[in-house]
Design brief:
By secondary structure, this protein is an alpha/beta fold. The protein has helices spanning 33-39, 95-103, 116-126, 135-138, 154-164, 189-192, 198-203, 221-237, 241-244, and strands at 3-6, 23-24, 47-52, 55-56, 68-73, 88-90, 108-110, 129-132, 146-148, 184-187, 207-210, 216-217.
């Protein structure tokens, strides 16, 4: 039987008895490396380098009985200041994470309930990175890039995704609508006055508007709570905190 050894965080996805050591595992006839690895619970989106008998191998390589595989986790390429920002597709169970990523300024669509094939086609067509806790979705052949989100709570998920994809230096908070993902624009009070509570219209001077769903945002208590989320992520990066402090104080009360 082929022998397997998974490295680093890939062990999180294996049954406990198989973690952290080399083990034998029977494979289907004419199984490829990809099929064998995914049969053990590790989606191809999580895999970077595959070594077969010490030599780099493609996921489609057919396995032999005596092969020995080492499997290493995928590492996203460094995200330079000039590189396009990654765009995400979060599955229907990660609505909180989708809103948090929008809060930081990242284009994040939230998938509604749909068959895996439909979601895979959407991600492939839009070039989006799939974020999911559904391993079967991430195994779909049309999902080129993705992340199995390990954390269970929303704040932990946000920290995980920001760290994994190296997003801290590219945060532009309060620039996307939390509800529909549209980019926000500055708006003057006269333009949005008919959508404001009287007290807000009297006291606030800065607003942003969403042309997607019509929402208006301004500085308020809700904005201050969300600001604490942004600052917590920025402090982990150590370099964005100062520039974040200069963002316009425009968010929904």
């Amino acid at each position: 039987m082929p022998r397997f050894r998974f490295h680093a965080e890939l062990n999180d996805l294996l049954p406990p008895a198989l973690r952290g050591h080399t083990f034998e595992h029977a494979c289907a006839e004419r199984a490829t490396a990809k099929h064998a690895i995914e049969a053990l619970g590790v989606p191809h989106t999580e895999v970077g380098l595959i070594l077969v008998d010490g030599q780099p191998a493609e996921p489609g390589q057919l396995l032999r009985e005596a092969d020995s595989l080492e499997v290493f986790p995928a590492a996203p390429p460094p995200l330079s200041a000039e590189a396009p920002l990654p765009r995400f597709l979060a599955d229907a169970h990660l609505g909180g994470l989708a809103r948090r990523l929008r809060l930081l300024g990242f284009d994040t669509e939230l998938a509604r309930d749909a068959p895996d094939r439909g979601l895979a086609d959407l991600a492939d067509g839009d070039g989006r990175i799939v974020l999911s806790r559904d391993r079967e979705l991430l195994k779909h052949r049309r999902v080129a890039r993705g992340r199995y989100v390990r954390a269970l709570d929303t704040d932990g998920q946000l920290r995980e995704v920001v760290a994994h994809f190296g997003l801290r230096e590219r945060i532009h908070p309060f620039t996307r609508c939390l509800e529909c993902n549209t980019s926000l624009r500055l708006a003057n009070r006269a333009e949005v006055a008919d959508r404001l509570p009287p007290r807000v219209a009297a006291e606030q001077t800065e607003f942003t508007a969403c042309d997607g769903c019509g929402r208006v945002y301004w500085g308020g208590s809700h904005w201050r709570r969300l600001r604490s989320v942004v600052d917590a992520v920025a402090k982990l990066g150590g370099s964005r905190g100062q520039s974040i402090m200069t963002m316009p104080e425009c968010w929904k009360s």
